[in-house]
Amino acid sequence: MALIYNWWSWYVRLAHPKSRREAITSRPLLLAGIARLTHHAGQARLLVTLTHASGDLIKAMTANVRKGLDSILATAPQLRNTDRWPALVRYILARLFDAKPPPTPWTGAQPQEGRLGLTG
After folding, report:
1. Cα-based angle 111, 114, 104 (whole degrees, multiple of 5)
2. How far apart are CA 46 and CA 102, in angstroms?
3. What sign for the dihedral angle of Cα 102, 103, 106, 107?
4. Which one of 27, 73, 112, 119 has the fewest CB atoms closer than 10 angstroms to its CB?
């Protein structure tokens, strides 16, 4: 069960790198659609009909997943299937670090006397 949870966590972080989403809320959000696969002129097309009220958020998250997968396939077509997973994890981690605000630099200032119960 933990392995499946971790896969879902990585999928959701790819979909929404700016924040951590719990599985109990993200699964109904991202699985609330009905999909239909059609084939025409040698191409396969997946049409997803959303049944959730947060349709715009779901579309944006799905677009992020698609962008990540397309990036891996475009930049690393020579990789074996087993090597694509680590490349995808590196892509997700890069998006996570880009989404985080930079840390506040430490100024080295000492607390003033009397603050926090400190006395000289």
Report:
1. 20
2. 38
3. positive
4. 119
pLDDT digits (tens, 9 = 90+) for 80-106: 878 888 888 888 888 877 766 666 766
Residues of the chain with pLDDT under 70: 1-5, 99-103, 105-120
Residues 6+ apart with CB under 8 A from 30: 12, 15, 58, 61, 62
Distance in angstroms (rounded) separating the CA atoms of residues 68 and 92:
8
The CA-based dihedral angle spanning residues 51, 46, 39, 79, taken in that order and rounded to the nearest 10 degrees: -160
How many distinct structural domains can be found in the chain? Answer: 1
What is the rounded CA–CA span in Å between residue 34 and residue 23? 20
Domain range enclosing 54: 13-100
